Amino acid sequence: MKLKIIFFVFVAFLSFSVTAQDSTITRKHPPKKNIWEKVYFGGNLGLQFGTSTFIDVSPLVGYKITENFSAGVGVTFQYFRYKDRLYELQTNVYGARVFCRYLFYDNLFGHAEYEYLNLEAFDYIIPRRVDVASFLVGGGYIQRFGRNSAIVGMLLYNFTESYYTPYQNPIIRIGVNIGL
Questions:
Q1: Are the CB atoms for 159 and 137 separated by under 8 Å?
Q2: Per-residue pLDDT of the chain (180 residues; tens, 9 = 90+)
Q3: C-alpha distances in angstroms, 92 versus 12, 89, 145?
Q4: HEC string for 83-143
Q5: Looking at CB atoms within 10 Å, which of 57, 87, 97, 167 has the fewest?
Q6: In 3D, which of 97, 30, 100, 110 has the Cα closest to residue 63?
Q7: What are the angstrom distances between the C-alpha of 23 and each of 19, 29, 62, 114?
Q8: What is the pTM assigned to this prediction?
Q9: Would the CA dihedral through 166, 169, 172, 178 be positive or negative?
Q10: Using the 8-state DSSP alphabet, how is residue 148 labeled?
Q11: Calpha distance 118→61 (Å, rounded)
């Protein structure tokens, strides 16, 4: 129940921020003619092979509401396989997320995210799928390498860490953003 309340407060805050920022922009400056100039794509790609195989594909799409504030959505797919002489385990994790970022200084930003994952739990003899919701907050550094491209590094903390959460605090992410 607490998680649902946090999620609805987060979405309400995000909606209010978008409305407030949008009305401020239209009063001061006319909107840009090309909406695609404010859209960016990015995400994470992780690969590991050997006794443990791990593949992470997590694309995202964001929209710059103002020069400093953006919001977006993303999806996650992870494949994990462990195999040795005695044991073999294989599973998939998939889900979605909504996020917002605020650029405080040239390269430093704050990040808040609500992530919802479905994964296989191995706490009983027969594996079962469980849903795991996470509220992640933290900050990051963005290093631009072109007019519309950047490498992004983040350090996040999961405030709703549970027994089934697939990663431990702190969470480190490195990815790429590409704007149009």
A1: yes
A2: 444 444 444 444 444 444 444 444 445 665 555 788 888 888 888 888 877 888 889 999 999 999 899 999 999 998 988 877 777 778 899 999 999 999 998 899 999 999 999 988 877 777 788 899 999 999 999 998 877 788 999 999 999 988 888 878 888 888 888 875
A3: 31, 11, 33
A4: ECCCCEEEEEEEEEEEEEEEECCCCEEEEEEEEEEEEEECCCCCCEEEEEEEEEEEEEEEE
A5: 87
A6: 100
A7: 6, 10, 19, 25
A8: 0.71
A9: positive
A10: S
A11: 21
The tokens describing 7, both together, are 């999620």
Give which of 56, 35, 40, 52 is closest to 119, Cα–Cα. Answer: 56
Question: Token pair for residue 119?
Answer: 């994964």
Cα→Cα distances 37→26, 31, 64, 140, 169, Å? 17, 11, 9, 23, 35
Six-digit token pair at 142? 């963005």
Domains, the chain, ordered by start? 2-179 (2.40.160.20)
Residue 40: phi, psi to the nearest 5? -135, 150
> CA 54 to CA 56: how far, in whole Å?
7
